[in-house]
Amino acid sequence: MARTRLYRNGVLEAEDFPVEDVSDHLADDQAVVWLDLCRPTQADFDVLSEEFGLHHLAVEDAMNFGQRPKLDRYRTHLFISAYAVGLDRAHGRLTTCEIGVFVTPQALITVRRDDTVDIEAVVARWDENADLTKHGVAFLLYGLLDYLVDGHMAAVQELDASLEGVEGRLFDGDRVSIRDVQRRSFRLRRSLVVLRRVVLPMREVVNALMRPTLHVVSEPMLPYYQDVYDHVLRASEWTESLRDLVTTILETNLTIQGNRMNQIMKQLTSWAAIIAVPTAITGFYGQNVPYPGFGKMWGFVASTAVTVVISVALYVSFKRRDWL
């Protein structure tokens, strides 16, 4: 599926025109084109290479999803690999979707694996800031990067809120809470690791785009890119602090479990001391002295029953306290 837009002199002129017409529109120096490909095929990439003269290594990176966030510079264009992310707070799972971006002086080309990237939200940002369309490709790229970085910030905030919820359950004493804390902690830690791999490289991507040598960001657009860069830095620093928080939660959980184990061992030792008293007495006398039912069958059955009942009572008591 392909989607197209044509801007001329800062004004939106056409949408959803055939990809084959792109080269005709680009003949005008005042025209700027956006082309979006979702689930592209080899034929789509062949058309891209023909219409825009893209380097085969950049096309290869766009075809083989799984690249790290990066910015590659070629003679006639740039290639950017970035990720849109989302967090399922209920389960603590992070979803990612890679998007490849070709940047030429007159065109912005986005390549998506699936519909996870809400491209309509990106288009809405462009339409909300129509007064900036006169800055061409720099503006279109800014709207896309701003959407992606805002998604990173939202995921970091969701992770932070989820970790705070785990912290609140650390000191619950029931066994279900303990297992849930351990499970969610490791799941959130895994999601945080994935998020760091997506967020941290974006600092270099945005920083490189602002370099004058690339001739991508004009002076009027520089403050907007600086704002995106500030958000990237904030998301990066936040992920670092969350990593420390996850480590603290895991260490605190282990400490709490160790303290609870010490308490249980102390209680078990107390019970053992209590039980040792009648055991020592009966063992010392060997029950050789007369007692109720001595020398009779019912006495033997009664003493056996008392032993069994006490043992069962102790087992039930320990089980309720989660000592067994």
UniProtKB/TrEMBL annotation:
- Classification via InterPro entries: CorA_cytoplasmic_dom (IPR045861), CorA_TM1_TM2 (IPR045863), MgTranspt_CorA/ZnTranspt_ZntB (IPR002523)
Gene3D superfamilies from the UniProt entry: CorA soluble domain-like, Magnesium transport protein CorA, transmembrane region
Q: Which Pfam families match?
A: CorA (PF01544)
What subcellular locations does the record give?
Answer: Cell membrane
Record keywords: Cell membrane, Membrane, Transmembrane, Transmembrane helix, Transport
Membrane topology, from the record: Multi-pass membrane protein
- Endpoints of the signal sequence: none
Instruction: Report the transmembrane regions from the record.
Output: 268-285, 297-318
Q: Which PANTHER family match?
A: CORA FAMILY METAL ION TRANSPORTER (EUROFUNG)
Q: Which family does it belong to?
A: Belongs to the CorA metal ion transporter (MIT) (TC 1.A.35) family.
Protein name (record): Magnesium transporter CorA family protein
